[in-house]
Write a sequence for this structure.
């Protein structure tokens, strides 16, 4: 087929930088990044967006998204974002955090930022494992899941049960929107983008705190192929972390 | 600067808060801990009235990271705490130093280690002047000795923070924070709240590259380069070192003391002078950079030194490093947990003067 006959149907969003990512094959961070980029373009907010990067594989978010960004210490992204948003309330501010960062060391910061109703958005990528440090147990690691620090599998009586963050965040007064999506299939990716868009709009409307959890795969640390990882996501993760909207104040009457 | 005629009678803590507002501080992030609570309490209403914002954070950790965020956005912001709380803030301060984020941080030093007590002490000198968190860094540190100076230095702290892209620390103690004195407030002129922020995150415009404020440098040689850059910046601060000299010209013995203890030592020096005894005071106003050259000049005149601190010997190391090629310093510690008086200092000063 000649070049003249080709029709471009899938292009790179303007706010995504044209460079190869460092992520492992089959990792879903690339999809999550793309969704963020698509929404920044669609909402026309590239010039007002400030990203707060966290610690872990996704710290390099700022290498791929073409917006101003600051790097936060482990788990503290919601506090850093609070400082950014309070000092520049007209900007759009989002954090992008993994499960180790957000649900373990950063549990206090995420809970209180949500409870205060900070006008920020949090994209929470949950792959049930510490990625960058080499596959240790996370607060979201499933029961029986083998990691480098749970070699016999996570045991509820020894390590506790996996934490469901979206349910917790949805219970807090300042949360305007909380939802859980998944990046395992086209259908779920489309749904996840709708959730993210709603969270973004809540901030743009100055309503309240927006939280979207994205279930994602980590084939490297799960020691699986990308396809096996997707199957695990569907068969093991989604049943424990059910998808859907957990809080939407536009349907409930708003937050104070 | 325009001097305002009115005098107000305020605590040291309130003077710092008022100084920050005069310096156009726009955001304050606090967490309660004695003896600095007057600062967030004052700010919780005053900064809102001034058109800024106040957050009582969930922890000192969060407050310091909120400060990091505001500083990265190029906005004048401040937090305050006291010793145990300062330990918790060190993570963010290290990141701010590494990312070259300007911010002002107040520590009203209390007794330690651990939970210690809520009384005055100077045990945080090392933490304040060495870089209390991880990595090779320093931050500019002021040690005010009066309530007026606390006000004045807070205003200067913001200027230095933004001129040099660095966290600046104001190290006081429970005496300074809780003591009331009359001060003359003043307003600095021509504060450019947005100028010179060509590194800060504000929202990418079409005519420039995105901005990134970070402390992670993974490429070969990149971190070494950043450390070299930071060290050169710290070295250049030597010219900004400042001290008060009181009755030092003809003195045989120089008392080295800073902050509240410097002030108490000054009272003791005045008493000795009335008795005709040749004692003087050298009071560092900048604790980092330490006024080493000025102190060494005194040592070269053949003077003797006695360092007095409300700790077990921390600034003593800087005094000795400054004068090491020509002289040494004796030391008198005031143990944290004790409240010093000028009378208590007389015997050790007299002993030193008489060579005992």
């Amino acid at each position: 087929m000649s070049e003249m006959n080709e029709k471009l149907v899938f292009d790179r969003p303007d706010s995504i930088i044209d460079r190869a990512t460092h992520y492992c094959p089959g990792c879903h961070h690339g999809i999550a990044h793309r969704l963020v980029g698509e929404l920044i373009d669609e909402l026309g907010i590239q010039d007002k967006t400030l990203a707060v990067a966290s610690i872990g594989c996704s710290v390099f978010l700022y290498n791929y998204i073409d917006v101003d960004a600051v790097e936060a210490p482990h788990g503290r992204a919601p506090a850093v974002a609070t400082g950014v948003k309070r000092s520049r309330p007209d900007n759009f501010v989002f954090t992008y955090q993994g499960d180790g960062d957000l649900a373990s060391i950063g549990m206090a910061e995420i809970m209180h930022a949500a409870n205060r109703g900070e006008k920020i958005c949090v994209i929470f990528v949950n792959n049930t494992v510490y990625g960058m440090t080499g596959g240790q147990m996370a607060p979201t690691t499933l029961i029986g899941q083998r990691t480098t620090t749970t070699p016999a599998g996570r045991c509820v009586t020894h390590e506790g049960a996996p934490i469901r963050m979206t349910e917790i965040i949805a219970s807090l007064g300042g949360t305007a929107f909380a939802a859980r999506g998944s990046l395992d299939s086209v259908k779920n990716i489309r749904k996840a983008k709708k959730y993210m868009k709603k969270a973004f709009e809540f901030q743009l409307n100055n309503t309240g705190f927006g939280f979207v959890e994205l279930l994602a795969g980590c084939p490297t640390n799960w020691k699986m192929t990308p396809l096996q990882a997707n199957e695990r996501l569907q068969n093991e993760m989604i049943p424990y972390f059910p998808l859907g909207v957990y809080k939407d104040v536009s349907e409930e009457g708003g937050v104070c | 600067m325009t001097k305002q005629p009115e005098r107000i009678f305020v605590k040291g803590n309130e003077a710092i808060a008022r100084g920050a507002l005069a310096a156009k501080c726009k955001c304050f992030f606090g967490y309660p801990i004695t003896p600095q609570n007057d600062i967030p309490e004052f700010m919780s209403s005053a900064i809102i009235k001034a058109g800024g914002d106040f957050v009582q954070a969930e922890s000192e950790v969060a407050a310091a990271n909120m400060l990091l965020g505001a500083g990265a956005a190029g906005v004048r912001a401040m937090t305050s705490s006291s010793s145990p709380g300062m330990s918790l803030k060190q993570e963010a301060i290290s990141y701010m130093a590494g990312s070259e984020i300007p911010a002002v941080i107040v520590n009203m030093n209390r007794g330690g280690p651990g939970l210690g007590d809520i009384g005055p002490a100077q045990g945080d000198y090392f933490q304040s002047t060495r870089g209390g968190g991880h990595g090779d860094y320093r931050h500019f540190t002021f040690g005010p000795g009066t309530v007026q100076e606390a006000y004045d230095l807070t205003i200067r702290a913001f200027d230095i923070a933004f001129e040099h892209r660095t966290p600046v620390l104001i190290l006081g103690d429970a005496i300074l924070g809780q003591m009331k004195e009359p001060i003359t407030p003043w307003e600095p002129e021509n504060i450019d709240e947005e100028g010179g922020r060509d590194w800060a995150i504000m929202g990418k415009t079409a005519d420039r590259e995105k901005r990134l404020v970070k402390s992670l440098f993974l490429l070969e040689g990149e971190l070494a380069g950043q450390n070299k850059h930071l060290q050169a910046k710290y070295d250049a601060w030597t010219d900004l070192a400042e001290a008060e000299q009181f009755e030092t010209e003809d003195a045989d013995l120089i008392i080295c003391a800073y902050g509240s203890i410097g002030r108490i030592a000054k009272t003791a020096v005045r008493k000795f002078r009335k008795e005709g005894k040749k004692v003087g005071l050298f009071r560092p106003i900048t604790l980092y950079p330490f006024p080493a050259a000025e102190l060494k000049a005194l040592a070269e005149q053949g003077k003797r030194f006695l360092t007095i601190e409300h700790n077990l010997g921390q600034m003593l190391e800087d005094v000795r490093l400054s004068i090491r090629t020509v002289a040494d310093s004796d030391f008198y510690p005031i143990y944290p947990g004790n409240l010093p008086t000028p009378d208590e200092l007389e015997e050790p000063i007299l002993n030193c003067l008489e060579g005992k």
Q: What stands out?
A: The interface with chain A takes residues 26-27, 29, 53, 55, 57-59, 61-63, 65-73, 75, 77, 91-92, 95, 99, 201-206, 210-216 of chain B (CB under 8 Å). The radius of gyration of chain B is 21 Å. The first strand of chain B starts at residue 2 and ends at 3. The mean pLDDT of chain B is 96.
